[in-house]
Amino acid sequence: MEPLATNAALVIIDMQKGMADPALGRRNNPDAELRIQQLLNAWRHAQRPVIHVRHISRSPGSVFWPGQPGCEFQGALQPLAHEHVVEKNVPDAFSATGLERWLHMRSIRQLVIVGVITNNSVEATVRSGGNLGFDVIVAADACFTFDQTDLSGRLWPAEDVHALSLSNLAMDYARVFQTSEILANH
Known about the structure:
Layout: E1 9-13, H1 32-46, E2 50-55, E3 84-88, H2 99-105, E4 110-116, H3 118-131, E5 135-144, E6 148-149, E7 155-156, H4 158-172, E8 175-177, H5 179-184
GO molecular function, one term: hydrolase activity
Protein name: Cysteine hydrolase family protein
EC number: 3.-.-.-
C-alpha cells in the first residue's frame, strides 16, 4: 500500500448507539470499534478530514428514528465541532446528502471508509464512491456486520457475510486493507 494522500478523508459510517441493539443478532469483528478509534485518533492527530455519517430512519419503530437514544453517536466516536456530519435516510451516504459536493469543494479524492453494516451502508457507500471516481479504501477490521438469513432460509455467519461483501467491493470499487496497514501508510 502506498502512502495516503495528505487530505485523505476518514468516513465513519453509522457508528450509532443503536448498533448495539441485541435484536440485530450476532456480529463479527468485536474489536472494530477499537480499530475505528485508532484510525480516528490518527486522523485527528494529523489534522486530516473526518466525516461522521449517521443514519436517520424514516420508520417510526426504528432505533434510528430521530430523538431515540439509538440514533446518537457512540460515546467514544462523538464528532468534534469542526468535523463534518452527514445525515442519511438510505444506506448510501452519497445519496441526497451533499457528501460528493462537500468532498469536491475540498479537493478530497481519497476516502478511508469504516463502520457498519459491512454489507449494507458500508457497501452501498463504497460502491457509490468508487463509481463516482473516488479512490476508496476500506479498513476490513474496522467494519462489522451481523449473521444474516438468505432468501432460502439459510443462516450465514457474520464472518462469511463480511468476507463476501469485502470481496465484492475489492473487485471494482475499493481496495481493502487492515487498519494496521492503513496506519503504517498514514
